[in-house]
Amino acid sequence: MEYSSYISLALYFAVMLAIGLFAYRNSTDDLSGYILGGRKVSPQVTALSAGASDMSGWMLMGLPGAMFVIGFDTLWIALGLLLGAWFNYVLVAPRLRVYTQEADDALTLPDFFGKRFGLQKSSVRIISALVIILFFTLYTSAGLVAGGKLFESAFGMNYYLGLMITVSVVVAYTLLGGFLAVSMTDFVQGCIMFIALVLVPLVAYQQFSGTAEVLSLAGDSIAPFSESLHNMTLIGIVSSMAWGLGYFGQPHIIVRFMAIRSVRDIKTARTIGMSWMTVTILGALATGLIGVAYVNKFHPGLTDPETIFILFAEILFHPLVSGFLLAAILAAIMSTISSQLLVSSSSLTEDIYRSYAKKDISQAQLVRLGRYCVFAVALVASLLALDRSNSILSLVSNAWAGFGAAFGPLVLFSLFWSRMTHSGAIAGILTGAITVLLWIFVPVLPDGQTLSSLLYEIVPGFIASSLAIVLVSHFGKAPSASVQATFFAAQDKLALMLQADEPPVKQTA
Question: What transmembrane ranges does the database entry give (predicted)?
């Protein structure tokens, strides 16, 4: 790797740290500012922040690798993700923005679950906070492993040095600037990812005479689209598209909706976010498809399909541009790590310590504690990441389903059903999480395989969680009048806000 690539990387790190310092000076005067940016985040930053924290390195490595290996079946996953993200903007975003403020200004997702039932200290709050802290600590460690391996494979650095650089930069700007820093860096990282996923497939495409040659060469390794469509089963389509269900329960994504400055801005954020997501997903799929054709034509010696983006960056571009493209992968990894660190820190600070502390604590002390928690979670995740051969990455591949099944139905019922009870909410979290774990790890099939080999675990987990919420709530005591009054007040406020955005009706003579 030439020095110009290192220059690009150094500039990227400098920008991230500068943003963290800027956010430190503008948003960290109280806990709301540190956790949610004071609910003043613009729709542009909201959209790209949600997208960047969502996709992570999976967008630039996992999705092209999936297209490279399994071919056009990957399109169903992409379609499911696009539909899930769109419904998340339509169904969850406006209601969550209003309801979290109406519910005594809830600052975190567990905080909202508790205050949804008029409770400051509740079992649903502590259970959901513990689930978030546990899984996001493991999730973060996997991101750090990916960062360490990126430095090792692309820059020739020692794995542990790469891990240290990754965690140091992420912790620095997250610890300094909190949510505003995370959102602003995600915005920049989202722009970098967008440019990279447009530039790489376009330049790679220039190595061929046209689309016909790409499809012909790719056809030597993957089935044509018509054959793939013919062979795809209904269960296979459901399993692939069910990835979209996960969006309703991802704390690091939906917290962006809680922080946007107004409900009126959500429509703008949706337009920007869905446009960004559509282009980047198509770019990732094109990178994988063209990558298959490129390998079959030029035989560059690719050993890992998930590194096809790195291969293109190193072979097809000037080292200065190559460094920028590799920084795009790092940006994708870091954007998700920072979001997970902040959500975990918020749960430790707001949902566990503040709820159960026996003495009052000032806003400045809470912010300081939040910074300590960011460092603590990062430290534990780094220790886990020291074992580069651990099985954490296999857990991360199922974490999307775990969060989606445990929290997705609860978020939807919290926003749409006034009759849901506190016991029903607890039952939903536990049933969804346990179903996913059983589906993944218990070898019940005759050949010793698990049920996840037949159907993606989020489907049974989501269904079981929904049924548990409905049944336990139906047979339990109805929520109090004050709890239901808060629910309907949020619905009325949202209706008024949406009505205010509608154009006036033209009067006819």
Answer: 6-24, 75-92, 126-147, 159-180, 187-208, 228-248, 269-295, 307-333, 369-386, 392-417, 424-442, 454-472
Closest CA to 255 of 174, 151, 339: 339
Question: Would you state the pLDDT for residue 197?
Answer: 93
Question: 444 burial class (0-12, 13-18, 19+ CB within 10 angstroms)?
Answer: exposed
Is there a domain that residue 430 lies in? no
Torsion angle, CA of 303/242/59/391, rounded to 10 degrees? -50
Angstrom distance (rounded) from CA 353 to CA 361 = 10
Residues 128-137, buried b or exposed e (16+ Cβ, 10 A)?
Answer: bbebbbebbb
Burial class (CB in 10 A: 0-12, 13-18, 19+), 504: exposed
CATH number at residue 270: 1.20.1730.10
Q: Which residues contact 18 (CB under 8 A, 6 or more apart)?
A: none
Tell me phi and psi for residue 260, to 5 degrees.
-65, 150
If one counts the domains in the chain, the total is 1
Q: Is 475 exposed, middle or buried (0-12, 13-18, 19+ CB in 10 A)?
A: exposed
Tens digit of pLDDT for each residue in 93-116?
A: 999 999 988 888 888 888 899 888
Mean pLDDT (whole number) for 108-126 = 86
Evaluate whether 70 touches 285 at the Cβ level (below 8 Å): no
DSSP secondary structure string for all residues of 369-385: HHHHHHHHHHHHHHHHH
Q: For the purposes of burial, counting CB atoms within 10 Å of the CB of 333, is it exposed (0-12), middle (13-18) or buried (19 or more)?
A: buried
Confidence tier at 508 by pLDDT (50, 70, 90): very low
Which domain range does residue 55 map to?
3-389
Q: At what angle do helices 266-298 and 93-102 cross, to 10 degrees?
A: 130
Distance CA 409, CA 414 (A): 8
- Greatest Cα pair distance in the chain: 77
CA separation for the pair 344, 179 (Å, rounded): 12
Alpha helices in 28-108 (DSSP H): 31-36, 43-57, 63-70, 74-87, 93-102
Other beta carbons within 10 angstroms of residue 67's beta carbon come to 28
* pLDDT(504) > 50: no
Q: Is the pLDDT of residue 317 over 70?
A: yes
Amino acid type, 457: E
Residue 484 lies in a domain: no
- Name which of 395, 394, 380 is nearest 171 in CA terms: 380
**For residue 47, what pLDDT is reported?**
92
pTM of this prediction? 0.87
Predicted pLDDT at 272? 95
- Is the pLDDT at 338 greater than 70, yes or no? yes
Residues 454-468 have pLDDT tens digits of 888 999 999 999 999
Is 493 a domain residue?
Answer: no
In-domain check, residue 446: no
